[in-house]
Every structure is written in structure tokens, then in C-alpha cells.
Amino acid sequence: MFKNKFLLIIFVLCTSVSVSFAQEALVLLSKGGVQIMKKGGSKWENCKKGTPIFLGDKLKTNDKGISKVLFIDDQSVLKIRSNSEIEFLGDKQNNKVAKDVFMSAGEILVKVIKGKNTDFKISTPTSVASVKGTEFWTIHSDGTTTVIGLEGIVELFNKISKESTSVTANLTGTSSVTGAVGTKTTKTGDVPAFEGDSSSTGGIKILRLKFIDQEGQEKSLVIEYREK
Fold first, then answer.
1. Span 6-22+77-227: which CATH code?
2. pLDDT value at position 88?
3. Are strands 34-37 and 218-227 parallel, antiparallel or unpaired?
4. Contact in structure between 39 and 57 (CB atoms under 8 Å)
5. Rounded to whole angstroms, what are the CA distances from 120 to 41, 202, 210?
6. What's this model's pTM, rounded to 2 decimal places?
């Protein structure tokens, strides 16, 4: 079964040990056609690696586009496949973000780091997937939300019927526009592949970025990561 983990080391080059980030997330990968719409905006703009993401921003991929997004506070990662559109919602308090990623269409892989006490939800027009320390795919198409569990537990809730089910590793949960909720064993070949992952682990990658803290000061951020 598909497995992918991030080893991350984050350095902030500034005089203060404690740093408050103005943005909630950063784009680690933008390939093949990825666009972003800033909160309150009306135009889609090209999105590149290192683009900051704030609550209220939207991101979409075209039929050849893929993207990876890193949440700064807890290093949770989203891997977004082609033909997907998501909006970054939630609430930020004391430098922690209660994340609610709304997906109107598409496929995303979610990796939530264990032990981070993260509040993370994936919402669709019909369903809500609430997670803690887990890894799973969420797919929304034709009114049905599908959750494929890879690790940990996902609570899949249907907004219409108010019914829910638990999805664990090797299970696939579905929640439809009719209100029906159910699970089944995940079959070989059901788990999507993410085209942005290579078969080899490779060396450590370095991403250098500029960001604005909550006091409006520009800082430098260096992220070292290895996918394995």
C-alpha cells in the first residue's frame, strides 16, 4: 500500500526564538497547472513553489496539475491531484490553526503528523472527515465523498443524514448525496498514486522562503525535508 512520510527540519533566521507566522501554509510543489485565488479576490493567478497560503485562499489544479501544501504550525501535508479545487478555512488561535479544508471536487491525500494535537477536517458539499494523526485519501465526485484509510482513524460524517462511520487502514468509506454512509475493504488498485512522488527517497531537499510575521517584519525561512 502507498506510504509516504516527510522528514522536516525548519529553521527560522531571525533574532527571536518564538515566531508567529502570518500565513498558515506554504506550497511545496506546483506542477503542470496550479492556480490560487486570494481571500476576497475574484481572479485566479498562477501558483508557484513557495507561495504563501492564508485562511480563505483557494487553490485549484487543472487536468495536468498537481500540488503539495505544507501547514507551518504542525507540518501536516496535503497532496493534491489534478482537477481538484479546495479552500483553506478554519480558525487560528495562539499560532495553532484548527484546519477545515473544503474540497468542492477532486482528490487529495492528507498526512497529519501523530502527536501534534492537530484539529483537522476535510469538508465536501455532502460530508466531513475529521482526523487525528492519520493518513488518508479523500475523493469527491458526482455527489459522493470517498475516504480511503491508510493509517489511523477518520470519522466520516454525512451532513444530510447526520450518520457517520469510522474509516481505518485498509477500509474505504463512502458518504453520498442521498445520505447513505458505509465502508468496505479497500481493494488492490483502489488507492490513487500521486504523480509528484518519486520511487527513490533521494537526498534532503531545501526550500528557502521569505515570510511576514504577525508584526509585519520580513523573515527568512529554510525548510529541509526528505520524502521517504
1. 2.60.120.1440
2. 96
3. unpaired
4. yes
5. 25, 29, 26
6. 0.79
